[in-house]
Amino acid sequence: MLNVLTDHWSEFSSGFWVTVRLVVISFGIAMVVGTLVAALRIAPSKGLQRVGGVYVEIFRNIPLLVLLFISYAGLRRGGVDINAWVAGTASLGLYTAAYVAEALRSGVFSVGKGQIEASLSLGFSYAETLRRIVLPQAFRTVISPLGSLTIAMIKNSAIIGVSLLALPDLLKEARIVQARTFQTDETFFWAAVGYLILTGTVTLVIRNLERRFAIRR
Length: 217
Prior knowledge:
Elements: H1 2-7, H2 9-41, H3 46-61, H4 64-77, H5 84-109, H6 113-121, H7 126-141, H8 143-162, H9 170-181, H10 184-213
Helix pairs in contact: 2-3, 2-5, 2-8, 2-9, 3-5, 4-5, 5-7, 5-8, 6-7, 8-10, 9-10
């Protein structure tokens, strides 16, 4: 079994780092967009709340694979010259952002209304109150759910490698190795180990963040 890993180390390592890059970029998109959508969801304006709600319902209820087809094949057919990397990271990031927004919204509700009212009475605008008081506490409250979403993102990234985008991620490279060697069990065992390394690392990081920053009630 070990000979499959040693003989094809370059393919496995290349696919592993492509998966890391894919997840890191997508996670950045998810956090930025998810935070903005969460702010819309809790805004005092009903119109803004509806905009945030529409985003969440659209991206949370369309399968990721369908989003990949729309963002790549659909846009290219419509004349937009988009490459596989942009389509893959954007789709995964925007898809996960809907779940990040809902997690942050639940964290915002855990912040006492008295703090918000006190901030507004001191002259802070609503945007400043969110940025300085509400969102920092909300992030600390939802560290564990965000960790779960990150792990789900790592697993969802495998869909990109086997879709029409065919990015050379860990699963894509494992399929190439399997096609060359016909050693199916051994090849996908090492692919699974690679994903376990990623998810295990995220788990350790999240536990450390929880010990340091999580709010315990």
